[in-house]
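Archive entry. Fields below.
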Amino acid sequence: MFDKLKSAFGSLTRLATHSSLSKEDVDSILSEFELALIESDVAQEVVEGITKDLKGALSGTKVARSEDKADFVKTQLKESIHKSFASTTKVDLIGAINKKIKETKNEFEPFVVLFLGINGTGKTTTVARLAYLLKNKKISVVVACGDTHRAGAIEQLMEHAERLNVKAIAQSYGSDPAAVAKDAELYAEAHRVDAVLIDSAGRIQTSKNLMDEMQKIVRVVKPDLKIFVGDSLAGNDVVSQAKEFKAFTDFDAAILTKADADVKGGAALSITYITGKPIIYLGVGQEYKDLVPFNEEKFVESLIED
Ligand code: GDP
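PREDICTED_STRUCTURE:
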């Protein structure tokens, strides 16, 4: 996972270790590093941010021993990346659901999660995997088949729901997804189901229609959390998609799927840097269990220390 990005960080450390860190050295090391980041699908703004930080830190630095230099470069890199993660609000999904269950003990209200993202990113699969995860945490779930456009999407989610033994709420294709979402919320209220997970459509005729549709769902059910689902293999495209969804629906957190097949890693690094929203889970396979919490500390360590 993310091997290309790891190797970009590794070669930066090696190059810096064997150079005098004169201005010329730093310029040439950083321009090679920039290229390696771009090849790993890191977004341009992120490349610029990291190299600017490094340039400031490395220029004119007097570090004599090469081991000290390697440590110094690694520390600067980590600081630069952590800076982008530090500014994000933390999201603890399970904690937030449990908190709401406790707080609404007398007048029960379910915790509502809306999933956003374009077709094929793994939204439906992610809804199912999250339903599995929540059930394992003793949190009851109802799913809403809110993608009423893509052929097969309703059946796909209903099959998952059947396998997972959770209730699915659906209407016919072409129906209003906001109405499906509301039905699911009402079902959860009536049956004291803790969490409502709403799947949504990924592509309608125009992106404006899609965004209008998402905004309507948000107005009607007022989700407690909006999660952007992005395909980590889409590299820079996933960053543009995240920006567009953020502009219209200001999501709270992101889940990146297909990280198991992502040899580059640029999307994982760029999404938070650019949107200011945390990645909360990574999809790492096609089975229900293949949704793992994203740990930023471990992610940065694995990129830089390996
Ligand atoms: P949607 O159109 O966004 O609802 O996408 P789907 O949930 O139908 O997923 C599209 C494809 O991606 C399916 O074949 C999924 O099995 C696959 N997929 C989803 N998440 C992952 C993941 O984390 N890893 C891998 N390898 N495949 C995934």
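CURATOR_NOTE: The domain at 3-86 is CATH 1.20.120 (Four Helix Bundle (Hemerythrin (Met), subunit A)).
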